[in-house]
Amino acid sequence: MDHLLAAFAELHQQGILPDVRAYGALIMACEKGNRADEALKVFADMLQKGLQPNVFNCAVLIHACASSNKPDEALEVFREMKLRALQPNLFTYNALIRACANGCKADNTLLGAGQTSSSRAEQALKLFADIKQQGLQPDLTTFTDLINACRKGNKEDKALELTAEMQQLRSRGFLSSGHTTTAPAAPPGGGGTTCGSSSCGPSSGS
Questions:
Q1: Is residue 196 within 8 Å of residue 89, measured between CB atoms?
Q2: CB-based burial of residue 52 (10 Å sphere; 0-12 exposed, 13-18 middle, 19+ buried)?
Q3: What is the distance between the alpha carbons of residues 114 and 66, in angstroms, rounded to a whole number?
Q4: Dihedral angle computed from the Cα positions of residues 145, 91, 33 and 64, in that order, rounded to the nearest 10 degrees
Q5: Does an H or E element contain 181, and which?
Q6: Could you tell me if 62 and 69 are in contact, meaning their C-beta atoms sit under 8 angstroms apart?
Q7: Which residues fall within 8 angstroms of residue 85, CB to CB, at 6 or more apart?
Q8: Rounded CA separation 71/64 (Å)
Q9: Phi, psi (5° rounding) for residue 77?
Q10: CA angle, residues 129, 130, 134, in degrees to nearest 5
Q11: Stretch 153-173: mean pLDDT, rounded?
Q12: Are the C-beta atoms of 134 and 105 separated by less than 8 Å?
């Protein structure tokens, strides 16, 4: 990981501007190495250089933030996506909901940026509403992390409501297992595409 970052720095020193594909590969390497802070710096540098990220870059970065308990940073990347008219896929939404759930505390004490576990749960519920509004189909991962966020945020009634909805969808065969425990596979071309479909997610082997 360090040698990749060093190589990137050397390219900058030589006046060579890496392309979106190269930035995407480095962000993914940071995610796999559990180095969310470095991934955020790479993303910020990418934007500062005037490059347009794609859905894949943002999804991997949001997943890295979720895994490192950085919900505010994950939501900031999501806002950047919206500003750039990038359409999040289900993997992206699931990672955001997980970031909110991971950012909750059972005692509802004040969290970073003036947030509480209750407000984190509200953010997760808004993301869930957004999923449906975009015509995406929630999967088992969506419901599991959303229910977790609601329970941590003292929204037990909502958690029970979601559990009933999940069980109904499962009984009708409309609920897939979900694949958000690993970062999505790179789209064709190594991350340089602008994949915006719900299928641009993890590889089938994850």
A1: yes
A2: exposed
A3: 18
A4: -60
A5: none
A6: no
A7: none
A8: 10
A9: -65, -40
A10: 120
A11: 94
A12: no
Q: How many CB atoms lie within 10 A of CB 133?
A: 8
What angle (nearest 5°) sits at the alpha carbon of residue 17, between those of residues 12 and 22?
A: 100
The span from the first CA to the last CA of the chain, in angstroms, equals 22
Could you tell me the pTM of the whole model?
A: 0.80
pLDDT tens per residue across span 26-57 = 999 999 999 999 999 999 999 999 999 999 99
Mean pLDDT, the chain, as a whole number?
A: 82
Cβ within 8 Å of residue 119, ≥6 positions away? 153
pLDDT per residue as tens digits for the range 105-134: 644 554 555 567 888 999 999 999 999 999
Amino acid at 152: K
> Which of 167, 158, 161, 77 is CA-nearest to residue 121?
158
Pinpoint the alpha helices (H) of the chain: 2-13, 20-32, 36-48, 55-67, 71-83, 90-102, 117-133, 140-152, 156-171
Task: Find where tokens 């250089």 sit.
Answer: 49
